Amino acid sequence: MNASSLALDAAHLIDRLDRLARSGEATGDLNPAQWEALRFIARANRFSRTPAALAEYLGSTRGTVSQTLIALEQKGQITRQPSARDRRSVMLALTAVGERSLKDDPILALAADLAGADPEKLCIVAETLRRALQAMITRNGGRAFGACYACRHFSKGGSARWPHHCLLLDEPLSEADSRAICVEQEPALPTL
Ligand code: SF4
User: Fold this and answer.
1) Which residues touch 43 (CB under 8 Å, ≥6 apart)?
2) Which residues contact 155 (CB under 8 A, 6 or more apart)?
3) Model confidence over 90-99: pLDDT tens digits?
4) Residue 140's CB: how many other CB atoms inside 10 A?
5) Residue 192's pLDDT is what?
6) What is the per-residue DSSP string for 51-90?
7) Which residues on adjacent β-strands are paired with residue 147?
8) Mean pLDDT score across all residues of the chain
9) Of 1, 24, 45, 89, whose CA is between 20 and 30 Å from 52?
């Protein structure tokens, strides 16, 4: 099989996996959009847990995202509070109920299936998918939303509590922050 046939095969596999994973999301109390919002809030850093960043991450409208967030708040999964950094903005946070929901996230079944693979091969697959995602984002004019540690503004060095620093926002970063995704992230290395 040549490279373009393999690439098309891989694209079909990704499409099928996505559909099957989403069909599992429709069976519980949360719909697919609500699962996506919960995942984003769990993975995003404190500069990014806003309705606007969520809308951008999902490639959705603010109105649609607002309906999703209202439903999640009514179900006790999240809170929406005025931001301490900017009182005009809203900060999203998971409640204990939301955190418990994510322990039963349907995407974990897919992750468990992938976990059986050889770690080196899995690393190559993840990097290949990351580059494909970056290419699609570049084509569509969106933001990367990559991990903080891979950002060109990320700087190592600081205190034990805040071992890293954001040079763009001039804010201290914890170890957990370094692994979170960020609306301002700009990849440190050229990808593709
Ligand atoms: S270093 Fe980059 S990813 Fe991390 S907080 Fe700053 S802008 Fe966001």
Assistant:
1) 180, 181
2) 164, 165, 166, 167
3) 999 999 999 9
4) 8
5) 45
6) HHHHHHHHT--HHHHHHHHHHHHHTTSEEEEE-SS-TTSE
7) 181
8) 92
9) 24
List the structure tokens of 150. 């891979």
Distance 48 CA to ligand 1 centre (A): 10
> Which of the residues in the chain have pLDDT under 50?
191-192
CA of 81 to the centre of ligand 1 (A): 22
Residue 181 near residue 130, CB atoms below 8 Å: no
For the question of whether the overall pTM of this predicted structure is more than 0.85, the answer is yes
Q: Which two structure tokens, joined as six digits, stand for 71?
A: 């439903």
Residues flanking ligand 1, CB < 6 Å: 45, 47, 148, 151, 153-154, 166, 168-169, 182, 184-185
All structural domains of the chain, each given as residue ranges with its CATH number in brackets, are 3-116 (1.10.10.10)
